[in-house]
Amino acid sequence: MALTLSPEETRILGCLIEKERTTPEQYPLSLNSVTTACNQSTNRDPVTYYEEQVVALGLDDLRGKKLVTQLWGAGSRVQKFRHNLLDAYELNPREVAVLCVLLLRGPQTLGELRVRTERMHAFANIGEVEECLRTLGEGADPLVRVLPPRPGQKEKRFVQLLSGEPALEETTSPEPRPAAASAPSRVVSLEAEVAALKAEVAALREEFARFRKQFE
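-> structure tokens emitted (216 positions)
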């Protein structure tokens, strides 16, 4: 089942999975709760500021892709939403945890995945994480793939493919620029800081001069 999710759909699906695993007593989620989960500042990369209308449209699109179901609670007028990821893919709990973190945080190293999945699944070691990723990357429609390390780093990264193939800049590792190349911008930055400090000193002198005049 090949899908390509938009950034909004990716974030929404990840949030529904996360809240099901970490706060099951509050799941399924209302539209307001989904919006809050999408925009929270922790465990998100990038941090977003989606309006409720944007989240509502994303939920509708996910319903059209059979990845989300809308529910009505008994005696409640508030509609709630749950994900159908396990109806679309045969995944075990540890695979769901890994995929969830990749949906919410983007490309991750093995070490990052082991730490950031702890609330959903406790991996005993890095080897278990790697084996899980290997399974997710197999088959006709793989759910993850490996990326090269970032410039200056040694660890390979992994990215989820529900959002399609990653952008070119994520799949390449450009050579780091020589330190000298950044020197001009650093000089400009330092000059700006010096100018700001001079202005601040001048303002303090004027204020002190006015203060002295009160006693003359």
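The CA atoms of residues 32 and 52 lie 7 Å apart.
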